[in-house]
Amino acid sequence: MILKTNQNGVMGRWIATIGGYTMGSRLLGFLRDILIAASLGAGPYADVFIVAFKFPNFFRRLFAEGAFNAAFVPMFAKELEGGGRKTAYDFAEEVLSVLLPSLILLVAIAQILMPWVIYCIAPGFSEDTEKFDLAVHLTRLTFQYIIFISLVSMLGGVLNSLYRFSSVAATPMILNISLILSLELISHWTETPAHALGIGVSLGGILQLIWLLVACERAGIKLKLRFPRLTTRVKKLILLAAPAAIGAGVAQINLLIDIIIASFLPEGSVSFLYYADRVSQLPLGVVGVAVGTALLPLLSRQLRSGDFDEVHKSQNSALRGALLLTIPATVALIVLAEPLIITLFERGEFTSSDSVATANALLIYAIGLPAFVLIKVFVPAFFAREDTKTPVIIAALCVLANVILNILLMKALGHLGIALATSISGWLNAIFLCFFLIKRGNLIIEFRLILRLISIFFASGLMGICIWLIHKNLIEPLSSDLGLRVTGLLILISVGVLIYFLAAYFLKAFTISEAVSIFKNTKTKG
């Protein structure tokens, strides 16, 4: 497929497509979390379900979406460029034949060893027998999700490599819908709402797989099951994916460490960190994941064709686009942390003291947000070159730093120390990745990019000051009613967006032509 228009404009359009669907998913995720907070609050049931939910999601983000995609997409793109679709599909079938039985074996072993698994990932729960047993039961309900979502990740990698992003980007919405419906419909017949949510996780995985199977069918992609065989290409995939599991998933490893340590803290600490992380993940999901998803197959193909000028342009474009949205989002989260948490979660079982504890964690997580978005931009530059060793070394150092900082900071700051350690380790990771890319000549920062970043910082600062003044003087005094709080928050967000983009435009952080190019249709020739 030959792209007949500017590659960076094409990537911008892809990012907008992926980001748009991801925004829809995140909004549904907020609705899901609002209902969870109202039903479970920040007490023991919430802590247990969050652990049961995050454990399969840890594997999903670390292996299925992290390591697997990092290794599979460049290899699939290479097969596609070198031998055409038939060769690429043959490779995908070889991978599928090994992946599926491996997943079934993993889940079977995990189900048997689940009490020991919970003791490893939430050792603090062992002090309360009832809480520990519930964690074992709920995690058994949720863990088979990893089978379905790993297959979804593979099918998504195939579709993304063919530049068919829409169906894949819409997939996470299905899980959120499943959890919402499970909470609203099934919870009447289960022991607790947490049990209904556990069922909803696995049900959501099944529905996501069906969704992508239909999408593949419509795209003319038909993968057949073969007898499992470790071919040369599958062995290479495994060798690439093993270190990439840490290199791409350092944030997830850090979050798992956070849960392990938070399980020893007072009740509700796991929940405070979860709800704060969910809010901070909105910009990361919409911007970081979208940029990383679009950038990896694009860089892979540009490198295969030897178009190194376009590689550097794509990376600079990705950096500019990511930070254009991430920096103002970070400032807004810092300024509006408390009103955001109060408006989203403070109802039902979720109290005002829970809001304060969660808002403080959100403020600290926000400090690390730009770092985690930058990681999503930098890591594909290594993976597209089939270099998974450098990110794994960097990630290992950052995980070690996170553990040390967690132990040192949680004594004085409690759950806030855990959030701060995560943000610091994220910045260390981003800085080291950037350093090695520049040192090897794989990333050339354009002077124009530096000027635009300065403009972004100034525009974001102006926006932050304005929304803080408006909130303190106009919105906060009227925020006693939920309807007024929601209205006030929407006004603040709208005014903030308007101020930022006007300031960013006049400071030349972006041009109208660049914004318009994102939405232009791409002409292709197959």
Which properties best describe this structure?
mainly alpha; two-stranded antiparallel sheet; 1% strand; disordered C terminus; 526 residues; disordered N terminus
From the alpha carbons, calculate the radius of gyration and give it in angstroms.
23 Å
Specify the number of helices.
18
What composes the largest sheet? 2 strands, antiparallel
Number of strands: 2
Q: How far is the N terminus from the C terminus?
A: 4 Å
> Based on CA inertia axes, which overall geometry fits?
globular
Sheet with most strands: strand arrangement? 1-2
Helix percentage: over 70%
| Helix and strand sequence | EHHHHHHHHHHHHHHHHHHE
What ranges have pLDDT less than 50 throughout 5 or more consecutive residues?
Answer: 1-6, 517-526
Residue share in β-strands: under 5%
Q: What is the subunit organization of this protein? A: single chain
Helix-strand makeup class: mainly alpha
Mean pLDDT: 80
Explain what this protein looks like in three dimensions.
By secondary structure, the protein is mainly α. 83% of the residues lie in helices and 1% in strands. The protein has 18 helices and two strands. It has a two-stranded antiparallel sheet with strand order 1-2. Helix 2 (44-112) crosses helix 9, helix 10 runs antiparallel to helix 11 (308-335) and helix 11 (308-335) runs parallel beside helix 16 (447-475). The chain is globular. The relative contact order is 0.12. Mean pLDDT is 80; it is low at 1-6 and 517-526.
